[in-house]
Amino acid sequence: MAVRYELIKTCKQTGARIGKLHTPHGTIDTPIFMPVGTLATVKTMSPEELKEMEAQIILSNTYHLFLRPGHELVEEAGGLHSFMNWDRAILTDSGGFQVFSLSNLREIDEHGVSFRSHLNGEKLFISPEKAMEIQNALGADIIMAFDECAPYPAEPDYVRPSMERTTRWAERCLKAHKNPDKQALFGIVQGGMYRELREQSARELTSLDFPGYAIGGLSVGEPHSLMYEVLDYTVPLLPDNKPRYLMGVGSPDALIEGAMRGIDMFDCVLPTRIARNGTCMTSHGRLVIRNAKYARDFTPLDHHCDCYTCRNFTRAYIRHLLKCDEIFGIRLTTYHNLYFLLNLMKQVRQAIMEDRLLDFRDEFFAQYGLNDSRGF
């Protein structure tokens, strides 16, 4: 198998676990946060900087790379690893979420999805087979089955056929996948916010024996409390000996709560997106560095952080850069936010090892300014 999960320890306080995910491009300590490199780059960060902050795996996007530069060109370059000079693990998503979220003009049928490019309006088509063709060419260590991500809210009459189609598409992805020895194909559990549908999806997908499983269709606008409820009854349905991936989740509280429920892998554009707007994650909560009160603040973003940004630059300087639209300012806030989440997951792993994740959560929430799981 291309990917193998090794369970190291389960926390006695919770269902959290630490493990090792063995891939063709290195072993990953889980639970882990994966920085998102949509177009074969994590915005403003170099591969060296990502390694410096101990990123073990990054995510790239099938839909966007299909549009440009095209999967054939990436394959000609030797695959994503060679193209972007990244020798650690890569995961590519299926492109399904982008097809449904970025294109207003789309038609879904059993064959796949016809849609228009958000770039130029060109009419395009992605099927399960096409998604596999693209991802096989990109060459990521972990690839995802093509799925439909139902919106929130959605009625059961919409979610049920969507979920059942996703299962049929997953079977077709398995048949079309050309590199199972080099690339692990994960199935995606769907079913919206309906327990019966989630249970059906998990049951049908686990019967197909994928090497790993993702939980999709969450973090799409629902309250965090509802997301945790869905995780509470969905995660136990997934195999203990395979990795579990919660898609699109990256707020600090949700990472901790997800890990407590047995999730191994997370990804989200949140840290890089808010960094570009001048919002920074700190141990005491959100800090909007553009605010005037930081104009003469010569302290680091976070006194408890030892990242490159916090070791070398002040709030006043970073605010100055952002107010002047200097790219270096965005680089500094992006570096800090990614480091913050990667370091948070390192602390989560240590807390699991020491059987104190509940205590760690309570301490973190109190310091961060969260009395409950309200989100970032």
Q: What does this entry look like structurally?
A:
The chain is α/β, with parallel strands linked by helices and 376 residues long. It is 41% helix and 19% strand. The protein has helices at 47-52, 62-67, 71-76, 80-84, 96-102, 128-138, 156-176, 195-206, 224-234, 252-260, 270-276, 308-312, 315-323, 327-353, 357-368; strands at 4-10, 17-23, 26-30, 32-34, 57-61, 89-93, 106-109, 112-116, 123-126, 142-144, 184-189, 213-215, 244-246, 265-267, 279-282, 285-288. The protein has an eight-stranded parallel β-sheet. Helix 10 (252-260) links the parallel strand 13 (244-246) and strand 14 (265-267). Helix 7 packs parallel to helix 8 (195-206), helix 10 packs parallel to helix 14 (327-353) and helix 10 runs antiparallel to helix 15.
How would you write the strand order of the largest sheet?
4-14-13-12-11-10-6-5
Shape: globular
Helix-and-strand structural type = alpha/beta
Q: Sheet bearing the most strands, described? A: 8 strands, parallel
Total count of strands? 16
Distance between the termini: 37 Å
Strand content: 15-25%
